[in-house]
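Figure S4 source data
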Amino acid sequence: MVCKAQVCLVQFNMPYEANHKLWTGNKFPLYVSTRVKDLYNFIEEHYHMQPDSFRLLLYTSSCTMIDLSKMKDKTMEQIGVDFSIDPSSPDMKNTLFVVDPTEPFVIDLAPSRKNMGYNLPTFNVTGAPSLHPRWTEENIVREDVREDVRDGREEVNFRSCIKTETSYVGLVNQAMTCYLNSLLQALYMTPEFRNALYNWEYIDSLEKDEALSIPYQLQKLFLNLQTSTRSAVETTSLTKSFGWDSTEAWQQHDIQELCRVMFDALEQKFKNTEQADLINRLYEGKMTDYVKCLECGTEKSREDTFLDIPLPVRPFGSNVAYNSVEEAIRAFVQYETLEGANQYHCEKCNKKCDAHKGLKFTKFPYLLTLHLKRFDFDYKTFHRIKLNDKVTFPYVLNLNSFISSTTSQESPGGEEDIGLGIKCDDSSTTDSGIDMSNGPSTSSCTTHNHENEKNRNACMLGKGPYTYELFSIMIHSGSASGGHYYAYIKDFRTQEWLCFNDQSVTQITDDDIHKTYGGGPSRVYYSGAYSSSTNAYMLMYRQIDSARNALPMQTQDFPQHIQELLKKMKESEDNDRKNREKMSIPRLKVYCHHPVEGKLMNVKLFVMPDITWTEVTEKAYKKFGLENVVSLDQCRLVSYEHNTDSIERSYDDREHESVENIWRISRRFDLLLEIRRKDQKFETYLPGGVATKVFVIDVARDEVIDGPIDIRGLLSQSVKEYKQTVGKIINMDPKQMKVILQKFTETRPVENDNSDLQTEEFYNTYKVFISTMYDIDNSKPFRESAVYRIIENFRHVISLHVQLPDTSKETLEELNIPLLDDKYEEKEKSVTSGPLKFVNESDWDVNLKCNETLKSCARINEDTTIRNISPQLGEAEEWNTPEQSNSEDSSLSDSDKTLVGDAPEGTDIEPQSWDSDYFPTRFAKRNYKAQFSTSKRFEIDWDIDDDSDYYFRATPYTDSIQQNLLKVLVDKRMRLSTLKKDLQSYVGVSVEYFKVFRISNSGESECNCLMEQLSSYEDGERLNVKLGRALRNGEFKVKLYQLLIDSTEPYKFLCEWIVSRDVTVGHAKKEILAEIKRKYDIDIPYEKCRLRKKYFKTASKVFLNEQKFEDFQFHSQFGMIVQELPDKEIVTDTNQIVLFVKRWLPAKLQLGQFQEIVMDNRTVEELKKKLSSISDIPEEHIDIAKGKGSFPCDNSVLRIQNEHDWNEHHDSFEDGAVFLYRDNREKPKQLNADEVMEIAFKENSRLTPLSTTSSYSPRRERALKIYLDTE
């Protein structure tokens, strides 16, 4: 049974005060089995609306309005939606109205279009209600709507809410195939070409494979364009018949170049058929290339054919353009005088004579194509440029004056080929892309005046057959370096002009056409090469001939073989639709505040629709690598809004439901893997929630004593209910609670307990302050109160989470870093309100990410959990010596946190001197293990210019994986240098021995500008403090990686290592091997260990034992690779290179394991010889291809056979390069559709990385070519 579906549009009619975004025009499929409840769930979750805050009305394609509010358990079929309407019918689609449940909603369904005397397509709405309809029960269920209409209240024009549809089908842009789409739409809208193509019949015995038959695939595409109910169809089957693979979609080409190549291919395919002369019959013209002697009058000529006429926009060497196409054509046939040194040797005169050389048209084609050569070369700047000069073109073009009245003359000696051919533009600018900003204006789809028709009739009265009407304009929008193609095309049946812009098809006006003349404003960037404009590039005209002019064939007129093909296509489409619904794989984007990485990460999961929510949670849990970090029961998936970093809703008690049930309508959504502490319980999140950040104020102490505390409320919740929620968390009596809301520029008390949070404008970006009083003096107005003053001063305060390093005695000694001396520590204690104490907890596991970053905030690509160890210790020296890195990195070994003055082990120290009885219990629940530290000076005066006196408060805490962190409240006007001074007491070492790094989704970036204020820091941002060992002169810091050659993540970061210039590689290797054996239990024998340079993601040059490090050039991100060899080292010379090779087995769709080949001469012959020795394949049967992308050059097995350049000429080989090789006698495995889908799913899961970082290696541009199956 075919799964019936219709399109449903969403239309919002909500009051402005509701603060809802109007997503009018969105579409989704409506199935027979879709429930009304599903529609409500879709609106709630997709548009973030609260339940019961809206009502749904469905206007169906059968012109019936249905109130859905009382029938949520029924399906679309049960409520009367008619799915029997022909999908190809132009009838109005279903529209879902989202309206206010408290307000009446009245609509006017009367036709509102004016009859403008133009044949625009109309909506055939059978039985549409009259202007003032009286609804019956079958039209609408609610009685109040009928009363509203009878009362004559203001009505809503329903027709204006529905986007006018043109009933034309667009083409999907595969990537950069807009040039292809424009030409295909022009050919499709050419009746003579379409009809002739339909008359061609595919015969199995004459074709090798229907998938490779260009006319057959073009037939199917045209049928889809004519009969499909979709808004756009794909061109992948056609491009596959061209012999193109998926990478061709990313190649940029020119529309005129494609036209010539496609016509050549069609001519080849039409040979020995009735359509053998189709291209010549429709598009071929003739011209004479002549030379005429001015002394004897003898004319030598040769006849040539053409498919298009290339017209220069400007004369050569001139800055003034031709005004019109007619002027350009006249210049095209203007003769050139051969004189002086360029005289013509006349055989009849037997001497050099002056002569005229030029072109004459002898026959124009039925379909005339004019190519405006807007791309030129500027010989002054040596750049290709685009010419935006204005060149007009007529709707009707009379070319009779260009045909010579006499036939071509020849000399008595007969015809002679004088070698003068037509100059064709073979240097068309390759161009495609995304610049669509200057596209057509389609806002006013008015009818054209009748000027064109009058011109057409007038020209038809003229003498001669060569009168043409314009029907297609190919437009280029962009510059000489890139742009976008689309087309304006006239429908001969309706006489209306349309814009075909990939998937979009819209009506246009005369003004839109006039804008394509050019001459308008251009956007100039650096030079003419980047001057962007929108103008006509290629024009198509059809000869006005009543005997030949045709209209496109209609469905009922299709030949029998086309009717059978159409039936076959419909059956195939229905089967594909059913299979897609069964095998539809939802793509989930899952975020996670990763406890180890310390940043928000995301992964993409492809799951089957019937998988349970519990199974999806487990997949995400494993994908983030949390197995040894937190337990699975501490994690759950919730709906998440990434832009505001807020949870939208949870799915409590639905863990055993399938993904399909939970997300029945939407197929793309974002989730968050929420992680709770062991002593916490998951909170229930209902739709319509708001995440508030709460701060607690102690008026008696004149300061904020806690916050931010994330507390979730509901927009529909009353202020009283919100207070009760807050009171439970902070242990405060709601009756004594004062709530103050701080907006961007306003601070006001919230005093109406019965008001809801939405009315009070509680939003995610606002802060909420809680106190038991406004001021000790109750008589003071709010704006003069202590609370108001504290909050206003707190406006500049942000919260930061600071991750602390391990500063155990062993670690500091190993890094040659001294502890803070006693005097310095005492000095710091004198300005604090209490002792700085940490609990010595044995379970503090600091599992840090150990990556160094550049000053330029370079992206971190390698993940690791290994610590930085360096055995060389020395006296402290200045960090940034000229030779060393600009950034330091030290991720240290796990140990107990120990500082001078530690409290007894296991002591829970609670905040002191709190006046309220509510606070101690509240903080005991949060397991705070240390006292607050706040400078007393901050409590006295907030407005001090001295940078050292800005607000600072730090509270130690542990996270879900027992990492020790600080929650810091700090004035963002403070400088980084001051922040470091305030942090040094918590770090335990002087500011000279640690650095601060900002953590973001793209990695870590060092905060190296000490005079920079914290104004750019975000509230809630996470910082990482790292220790660093001082370097001696002649020492360098390098990063060590272990090469895991068969892993998808081949480079495992080990640590940073310090090397000296005068140390040999062999000596350093021994020390490195001993250290990684001791610390990481990596045991590699010395004779089987190789050190080599890491160059980006390539294992590059091999370091020989006798070399010294002074032989190498060091830089700030120098990396070195530790590689374990299967046997002893065989590289003995610095001129040798090492390549990685893998064997490709096409018959099994498998790749072998990596092998190494050491090359001396760096030639293809040497490589094939060595490959033959390890594979037993004769050298003459070995094909080689260079791996794509970065090491390990992993690629889908479905793409290796056809998307690698086998036997490409390789003139250079580099260390660490990857090459694939195969036996060219081996035949590829043939797969059916199910096998392809299964392998694609597995490969997609295997190749999808945790990180969103992608490595793109652009392939070289190829010439446009269509490959025939005979090649």
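Figure S5 source data
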Amino acid sequence: MTSAAVEEVSLEEQQKTDEKIHNQPIFYINERNGSAECQKAAAEGNGTKIHPSTTNDVGQNAVDCSPKGRSATICGGDSHPQSQFTIARTKFAELIRMRAPKSFRTARKGSSTMDDPEMFGSSANSQPEKDGFGWITGVLIRCILCIFGATLFLRMSWIAGQAGLILGGVVVLLSFLVVVVTAISMSAIATNGEVKNGGCYYLISRSLGPEFGGSIGLILYIANTVNASMNCVGLAEAIVRLLKQDYGFHLTDGGINDVRIYATCTCLFLQAIIFIGTEFENKTQLALMGTIWICIISHFVGTLLPLSDIQRRRGVVGFSFGVLLDNLWPDFRADNTFITMFGVYFPAMTGIMAGANMSGDLKDPSKSIPRGTFWAIAITTLTYLWCMVITALTTVRDATGFSEPELHPTTHRYTVPSCRANDTCRFGLANDYDVMTLQGAWSPLITVGIFSTTLSSASGCLIGAPRILQALCADKMFPYMHPFAKGYRKTNDPFRAYFLTLLIAISAIMIGELNSIADLISNFFLAAFAITNFACFDASAAKSPGFRPGFRFYNKWLSLFGSALCVLIMFVLHWPTSLVTFFVFIVLFVFIKHNKSHINWGTSTEANRYRRALNSLLKISRTEDHVKNYRPQLLVLSGNLVARQALVDFAYCISNGRSLLLCGHIVPHCSSVQATALIRTLNNQFTDWLYEQHIKGFYSAVAHQSLRAGVQGLLQTVGLGKMQPNILLIGYNSHWLTQCEVSSTDNDNNSSGPHWYKEYMGVIADAFEANMAVCVFRNENDGLDHSALLSKEDQLFVRLPDLLHSDRNSSLTDDLNRGVSAKKVRPKAKAQQNSVLPTCSPSRAELSLPTLMDRLPSVTAVFPSGTNGNGSMEGMNGTAKGSRRVSSGAYLRKYDHFQTAGRPSMSAKFRTQIKGGFVDVWWLYDDGGLVLLLSHLLREHNTYLPNAKLRIFTICSKLNPDDVHQKLVEMLKKFRIHFASVHVISEDYDEGKLYQETIEEYQELMNTLNPGGTTEQAISQEIIDKTQSKTMRYLRQRELLLEFSSASTVVLISMPFATANIVLSPVYGMWLELLSRDMPPMLFVRGNRTSVITHTS
């Protein structure tokens, strides 16, 4: 928080104000010109005010929570709370009813829930009643007309003759079971909130998510469209057969071409009716409905009338109990089976979705869909059973057509004709499709019924399919299809979707024979039923508080049974088409998941994900830890993630999405309610930032003015159960030397003085005390906080300051600039790492003095002007113009930050993979194997050092180096750590063998910390004497590091062991500085001596 965000009144005044308004009901009425933040704050009741001119350190508006900052009117005072509530509700109702200007209506789109009149119970008065169809005209009639198809008059008698009355009834009842269970699941989903346009697609997508909804929605659209084509072709075939047989008339060939012409004309005629409007189409549906019922009554009346000779010769004998007994059991012909009968009948029942497809045109979809669908299922199922029983009671299975069936004189049952032996009977219940037409009181009326059922089914599909497509396109499920979402008129008719559906339907009609597609359509509908049932089961099993259906007569296990039954029937009917259906579904599912993963509709998928995560956390918390399951769970003190992206990226190379990564941030603000709101805002922003950077981690912040106390709070509270950090990763404090300088102006409250250094080192000491593993990461000499550079480059776009260069804090560079030289030059590793290193202490050969260019990485400097630092267009190493190359040969991505810097992008340093890198491990102390495990993780294939070569270094002073080398190699092989080489250095840490350059560096640091001529010293003489031997040891280790690892890609080294008072002393910072200065990225590691690797299986 910046200073501009400080409270405008004192704490005492704030407390008085809070006491004054305590226990008073407060309602905030937002001003019309109020910002969205102010409205949200008013809705939450915190009375905050946003100062647009004041920003904090992350660019967010500062929050003023003072009484003066409240931008709302307090409607309260001494009046009664109930009267205040009534006044506020009335004012809001008037505000909603008034015709507000456009600017105000636009501003209200982002307003809070306090602007919602439903919150005050005034929605019924302020919102007009929705126009639409009721449950009878909108759902019941449409479902009945779609279920009643050609099967009713042309196939039910044939099913009774083939399967018999018992198995035929089983076919009907099994289909009834499937559709009833599906209707129950659909009703539960439909009554769990407001249902909009899209029908089954809308229900599934809002329950299971866009992947399931979009996939099955497109399949349903195609199935309904082609189903309309099939009905049109079926009607056309009936017309061609009628005209050809009875009148000898034909248009072209009297075959498939005539079928195409009649079917296309039928489709155009139905589409024209739909274009007129849904209200006119609904009236047409009412006329068709009346015609169908008249035909059904005509059939029943015809069975009661005296029989004609033609009826008798064709097998109609009237009501007879003997005929019923003969037709009771199955007698399949021509390879027909029970599955065949089910496949013929079940497509008729797929019309139960017709009412749901009209959900956008219904007055109250949540009530209309369940009521109308169940009544439609009951009425149509009873009607189908009725027609099957009537035909089985009145018609024999086989008839010759030229003689009446004969009665047996003894049994008084009809005998089987001779044509049955060679299957040449053309008439009878099992052979003739026109039995119901023959039984009707007036045969042409039954033909009209066939036309009516076919037209009604086709019409229902042609009007329902475009609405599914409209909803799909409105949600932008598929690219380049959004224009089809546009609606016209008051009823939002999808005219564009009508045209596309018409083209697809006519294209399918051109096939002429759609029998091969019939199984695929049935499988598409069964897949939709299966997904609908699974959606209800999944939503119920997730146990989300938001799933509260108004329809209570459902059960999750019943829905699961229905889903499994639908899938089973799909494969039993025709397994090849079932595989095709699943293949299409999976392709669409993967496509939508890849393109629409950001959509969040509060689906059961998210609810189940939460439930599984909670259960997993509870199970893990009850599981005892084992070394084989150890994972490094990092708490990274990253602060502002954007400013310290390099630290976060390096930490993610370790966690890599396989272990916990927590980015801790100590917000320098006093702990308060305002700070809590700020932290929530930061949490949302940095969580989004982590997602955009493809980093699988979490952000956690604590508001505290003390760094050490804030970290203590994090260590105590961060994590959940066993998902708690076990490693504290902190960036190296590059300014420690400046902070430790003692001057007369320093005081404990100075954020850049000794107090801040003690805060920083206290964090490390506290982590040691908490028995946590600690890692300190130093990013060469560059540092980790690049916020200043980021703002300079983003805002001014000028050449970055000289502090970008890696020689910023190098005392060796200062020596070179002053012309200082030494007779005995300290050796330094070359860039070529392919040379074989000895396994014992190396000789201190005299080497030439390295230049500054040898110390810097091999880069090409590119500045905003397009030239390098000297104005030349060529790089320092002669690389191609405009390119930037790190020493490893890895190129940086073009969208990284600091693109115009004079060195590789620091923000993307640990994002760019480096081939052929080296990871050096200096294993100096027993830390449980943590340093080895981290080195292994850094070399994984998806880090910035894939398959890098690992070199292990260790130092021994008293043991035999060869024995140590042999044992170390054996141990590494047992631990399955793949290494390139192992080096054991024999060292006695003789102070007299140190290079003069190393001693001068040490003296320079000591002169800075303990300057002469002053009474105050940063390091007491007692600590100096106490740590003298260790200091000399680390000076020698510095020389070894420079000699062997200064040209490596990254170095991991055991962190120096020390007591708490030494850690808080500047001498510990001096040790870390000496070991890491002028080195590649270095990670200090100190484990808690708990084994993290094991050789057991």
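The chain has four domains: 3-126, 135-296+307-595, 635-778, 914-1011+1018-1097. The chain has a mean pLDDT of 76.
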